[in-house]
Amino acid sequence: MRMVRVAVMPGQGAPVELREVPEPALEPGAALLRVELSEVCGTDVALRDGRLAGVPYPIIPGHVSAGRLQAIRGTLLDLEGRPFHEGDLVTFLDVHRTCNACWSCLVAKASTRCPRRKVYGITYGLADGLAGGWADAMVLKPGTLCLRLDGPPERFMTGGCSLPTALHAVERGDVGIGDTVLVLGSGPVGLSAIIVSLMRGAAAVLCIGAPAARLEAARAVGAAATCDISEADGETRLAWVLERTSGRGADVTIEATGAPEAVVQAMRCTRDAGRVVVAGQYADHGDASFNPHADLNRKHLDVRGCWGSDFSHFHRAVRIAADPERSRPWSRLPAERYPLERANHALEDVAAHRVVKALIVPGDAGA
Amino acid sequence: MRMVRVAVMPGQGAPVELREVPEPALEPGAALLRVELSEVCGTDVALRDGRLAGVPYPIIPGHVSAGRLQAIRGTLLDLEGRPFHEGDLVTFLDVHRTCNACWSCLVAKASTRCPRRKVYGITYGLADGLAGGWADAMVLKPGTLCLRLDGPPERFMTGGCSLPTALHAVERGDVGIGDTVLVLGSGPVGLSAIIVSLMRGAAAVLCIGAPAARLEAARAVGAAATCDISEADGETRLAWVLERTSGRGADVTIEATGAPEAVVQAMRCTRDAGRVVVAGQYADHGDASFNPHADLNRKHLDVRGCWGSDFSHFHRAVRIAADPERSRPWSRLPAERYPLERANHALEDVAAHRVVKALIVPGDAGA
Amino acid sequence: MRMVRVAVMPGQGAPVELREVPEPALEPGAALLRVELSEVCGTDVALRDGRLAGVPYPIIPGHVSAGRLQAIRGTLLDLEGRPFHEGDLVTFLDVHRTCNACWSCLVAKASTRCPRRKVYGITYGLADGLAGGWADAMVLKPGTLCLRLDGPPERFMTGGCSLPTALHAVERGDVGIGDTVLVLGSGPVGLSAIIVSLMRGAAAVLCIGAPAARLEAARAVGAAATCDISEADGETRLAWVLERTSGRGADVTIEATGAPEAVVQAMRCTRDAGRVVVAGQYADHGDASFNPHADLNRKHLDVRGCWGSDFSHFHRAVRIAADPERSRPWSRLPAERYPLERANHALEDVAAHRVVKALIVPGDAGA
Amino acid sequence: MRMVRVAVMPGQGAPVELREVPEPALEPGAALLRVELSEVCGTDVALRDGRLAGVPYPIIPGHVSAGRLQAIRGTLLDLEGRPFHEGDLVTFLDVHRTCNACWSCLVAKASTRCPRRKVYGITYGLADGLAGGWADAMVLKPGTLCLRLDGPPERFMTGGCSLPTALHAVERGDVGIGDTVLVLGSGPVGLSAIIVSLMRGAAAVLCIGAPAARLEAARAVGAAATCDISEADGETRLAWVLERTSGRGADVTIEATGAPEAVVQAMRCTRDAGRVVVAGQYADHGDASFNPHADLNRKHLDVRGCWGSDFSHFHRAVRIAADPERSRPWSRLPAERYPLERANHALEDVAAHRVVKALIVPGDAGA
After folding, report:
1. Which residues of A touch B115 (CB under 8 A)?
2. Which residues pair with C135 in a beta bridge?
3. Neighbouring chains of A at 3+ CB pairs within 8 Å?
């Protein structure tokens, strides 16, 4: 019996452990993916710290991953109805079992809120099988939506989950040609939001974040100006934005911080009749206080929560990554690589904002 | 020299005084309106109490009014380019001088936020002339947009400013056929929002408000169920809504209360991926605290501030009022009439929520 | 072995035959529906005449149907995840197997264009089983989306497939409060479009169609005025519309005729910057000629093809039918009932526009 | 008295004449513009040939122009309310007197269809004063909306009127990240549509046009592939598009040709549920025939006429031109310069598609 090395989060607050589990038999329609790269993102830190509800510990983390199809049981079709072959380099939508049969999917057309959806590496646990990417191999269950990767997997994985998330946020913000966009946050989602806003024709993108290395990355991918939150309080930041927007505020603000008060800052930094997209509150970090009259109603503001992303975002993210020109900005972001054995270091580096992007590379030898 | 009786708010917190001022000569393009009905609404109470910024006291209140054109200097054209005649029964858009030449008007296309706009009875004061409707007559300045009234003026004025405001809110909420709509607030805007939501095809409208007489009015105009805020705390209200919406919350919630915390309640009572329209925070009543994760981001919610209304809403409001069938629900709302001399009583009754709708009738004899 | 009576269209141009086929065993997740009512609509005439592509004759017609669940193999869940029970009165979405896995479903989000979708009574044939409603019983395959019917099934079936179709068209036309809507065609879709436009707040609906009895029905369900095509040529019709719309044309026109030239008439009868929805060209009736400069570009017009409907429309159609108030207009439409044996008569009556609505009632005794 | 040289089109079909007219006195609010560059576009050829309705010959052509403010009578304010000064380099919206008081402006919110709008160089004639740009100087009437130009005027004028027109078309087509866009036509609007589509994030732009030099320009500004209409009939072009779009057709097609049959080609080359923008039918070139079933209804297609552009497009066009990076693609387009004396040559070159872009430079010495 062949064994697969997997990194396991045993429970809330406990460090990741390396284990070996037997490679399972595949059910019809399933496939075995030899993982080449898997992502470490803020969600994984929240998983480690137990800040997400409904996580079936123990779990194998790693929701967005890329690798080669090692075995396919039966037929696995792509969007056009053509079969995948063993050896194909693919990634897959981490959201599985959006049901297309419930009120959210069919009436509200809000599939990211489908109550039956399951996410590899987050709401699928070890009990569900090899269902996370921090592993030598994982199992793609029947119905998993795969996409071929053109070019080296790094090109897609450096954006990783931040790319469809940012794409969703930028579209929900209806960023258009000539807009001035403010991005709050300079982590992976914030950096991708800068790139994608410019891709939609924004005239200028401002970024407020920290630390210095990430703001440098923000400028490297095209931000016109950056402001360091460690050096500017709320009023100074607001003044900084107004100075750069004829006193009006940004046309669109994309919040990608995780800090509740940033949502209120976003409202204040946005012009009247502008749009605020809230994409950074994936875990509960507490309450924030705002003034409904001045911050919302009188401003005739649109504030839009943006949860997850769906296949349309993922599909286009992969298409962007396949384009050497369009994907170039991400190649300017430093990505740190960690073998499976160093998963805990990866989590610590991400939690401390010491790296811009962290990738698990199961094939690399441990230190 | 002919004199005109006007009701004047001398300044913040002072009672309304009756004065007589000379009837002015008309500049070219202006008209004199013999006022038949003028509205008393929550904004007038806020004016009296000094809760609005930028009011040029002393002012003649009365923004939405109806009457007959007594004199026209030169030509006054309607939307189709046809002239109005003396004796025509008209109403007019209370917003004047939206400039069509600034960034808000032309680039953001957000004319309700045009910095040059002036509102009769609110941001035009006595120094600007007979610029409010609580008077025997008022002057419509050149460029004022008038509309003929078909049928008795009461039919339009019973809705009054609440009708275009509600129309704007309901459209901004994109209420559609089959939706369940929750209206927070049972004042004139809330009641009109119930009627207009049903006019757009809502399957059911729930209303949370007070006092009992207004909730009775809410049911009379079509609310499927009402909940009295004096008898139910926030959690009870939320449970009441969930019970009536398959546990999901309303598709669209329209906030029309004036209470900051109602905005947060609106978010919580709305289903995932639903829409909240904030139309009740016209004055600053303080802050509210919410949870950006649970109330906004995870819900994938749209929260939309809705400020004022523009001519398109006003035009349709007048068209609705001209239709005996469409305007019928407003006729079920009790409207209290006050002569000019009793303007202070009208304000007190409105402030205390003792009446559903209050109208100033300058032609009526005072008590 | 129990036998089921079914009405079969053997092939293009051949009359319907009554046959008896054995009641099949149910696969897991399937259900047997005892049909109470099944619809006869223009599509069935097109099926008989062989004007639709890709029909797998022989077929059992009858796409929209209602009846009682006679047997369920395993579990059949509703939208909320609650089980249906044997004896429940239901209807079901006639579109089956929208795949939620192809480019149309997932990227374009245009499920009505999913290449894998199958429609009961149209693209499922006899070889696929009891897959049409003109039968004593039919089989709902696994994954069929069912909805409970409140109230008598006639209330839903009198609208039948025309109700979700019209709902889709009216929404695609973004009909709003105060709009003047022009409906071209007075068949079931046209009549439902009148009702649904008024339900969305249209100020007035004009209808151009024929024959007299259907125009009478149009007025009975709320059309403000009707024009008989047999008495008015294209120019006269245009003049008739302009007269009723301040010389501008309708805000929204919904084409529901089947005649290619009606699409051009629709463009000409709509105001500048208005919307035309094309919902009546379900079969190929040839070409039409228009002037792209005058009819489309200079008018800044939106012309929107509208194909089929999805579950969201169906769900709301059923909700409307469950509401005695909202569904009342349909009750004013005369519905003719035919036993299975008279299916050919039903088709002839529908083809000749002799009836407004035709329903197959398998339980009725034949003549 | 100072004299101004102007190029005049005396009437339909007659060649342009050079005349000298006295420099007029300015009314309050007006300004005199010393013209540096004025455009020659397809509309000017249509003007010469008498193919536009309502032109008040004789006229001074030249609608989009740039120059320096030589004299201002009174105050001329920018969008932010700051005064312009004599010597400022500006351009201006060629559409004047959009009334903001009619049904089109206020209810339909379709200002490009305002019946009172006047366009410099097109619907203003010589009788209206120095109202066209093919002149040493022109008069900007009160209410003309001016914008400062940063950088050399060539940068804006090389795009000229094609830039806001294309911007409007691309926005009306809702071009998004990852879309495949098909542009029909390779004249200035087509070329700008290619650039602007890429600016909105299109993954690939295909272009069908002629002659070879313009297709070379199309590739120079980013078209992924081009097809020469002189070498491919309609079916070949359709096959060419399908080959490059997985057999589906373009997500968005922008028609910018002037040929009626191109509108039908656009429908056929667009995918199901895609969008067609018709922006090339500015003059009447006759009828076209299409199949409403196959080309529109079954495709669930959106076909959108796009007339003119408004200030929001113009404002952003100027902002794009001010950005060295964003405006770079236009700098790759060859622009031919003509002194006033050679205006007829310019018209002939544009009519024969011999040049990509033609500019009148009044300050240049004639040949």
Report:
1. none
2. C6
3. B, C, D
Q: Which residues of chain C have pLDDT under 70?
A: 365-367
- Contact between residue D69 and residue D32 where contact means Cβ atoms under 8 Å apart: yes
Q: How many CA atoms are closer than 13 Å to the CA of D31, on its beta-carbon side? A: 28
* 8 Å CB contact between B94 and B60: no
- State the pLDDT at residue C367: 46
Residue A53's pLDDT is what? 87
Find the largest Cα–Cα distance for chain D: 68
> How far is residue C277's CA from residue C267's CA, in Å, rounded to a whole number?
9
Name which of D248, C96, C5, D174 is nearest A200 in CA terms. Answer: D174
Determine the distance in angstroms separating the CA of D42 from the nearest CA of chain A, rounded to an integer.
25
CA atoms of D290 and C292, how far apart (whole Å): 11
3-class DSSP state of A17: strand
Cβ pair A297:B303 closer than 8 A: no
Q: Which two tokens stand for residue D264?
A: 């039908």
Using CA coordinates, name the residue in chain A closest to D172. Answer: A176
Measured distance CA(C215)–CA(C225) in Å, rounded: 9
pLDDT at B367: 46
Token pair recorded at residue A19: 């284990």
What is this structure's pTM? 0.96
Q: For A179-183, A248-252, C156-160, which range has the lowest pLDDT when averaged over its residues? A: C156-160
Chosen for mutation from D84, D311, D314 (greatest number of chain B CBs closer than 10 Å) is D311
Rounded CA gap, D176 and D251, in Å? 9
pLDDT tens digits, A297-355: 999 999 999 999 999 999 999 999 999 999 999 999 989 999 999 999 999 999 999 99
Cβ burial, residue B325 (10 Å; 0-12/13-18/19+): exposed
Report the alpha-carbon distance of residue C37 to residue C361 in Å, rounded. 5
Q: How many helices and strands in chain B, by DSSP H and E?
A: 11, 18
DSSP state of A55: -
Question: What is the full DSSP assignment across C255-305?
Answer: E-SS-HHHHHHHHHTEEEEEEEEE---SS----EEE-IIIIIITTT-EEEE
User: Mind telling me how many Å the CA of B310 is from chain C's nearest CA?
Assistant: 15
Round to whole Å and give the CA distance between C58 and C51.
15
Residue type, A181: V
Of D80, D178, D200, which is closest to A201 when you measure between CB atoms? D200
- The DSSP secondary structure of D64-129, one letter per residue, reads SEEEEEEEESS--B-TTSPBP-TT-EEEE-SEE---SSSHHHHTS--GGG-TT-EETTTTS-GGGS
Pairing of strands A288-290, A250-255: unpaired
**Contact flag D326-A203 (C-beta cutoff 8 Å):** yes
In degrees rounded to 5, what are phi and psi of residue A15? -70, 160
DSSP B283: S
**Cα torsion angle, C184, C187, C192, C198, sign:** positive
| Closest alpha carbon within chain A to D195 | A201
CA distance B205 to B256: 14
Please count the residues of chain D: 367
For the ranges A267-271, D113-117, D246-250, D271-275, the lowest mean pLDDT is seen at: D113-117
Distance between B178 CA and the closest CA of chain C, angstroms: 6
Q: Are B316 and C177 in contact (CB under 8 A)?
A: yes
CA distance D334 to C202: 52
Q: What is the ipTM of this complex?
A: 0.95
* Two tokens, residue D70: 């030589």
For the stretch B221-253, pLDDT in tens is 999 999 999 999 999 999 999 999 999 999 999
Instruction: List Cβ neighbours of C201 (8 Å cut-off, separation of 6 or more).
Output: B196, B199, B200, B201, C175, C176, C177, C178, C179
Q: Is C73 exposed, middle or buried (0-12, 13-18, 19+ CB in 10 A)?
A: middle
pLDDT recorded at residue A366: 54
Q: At D330, is the secondary structure helix, strand, or coil?
A: helix
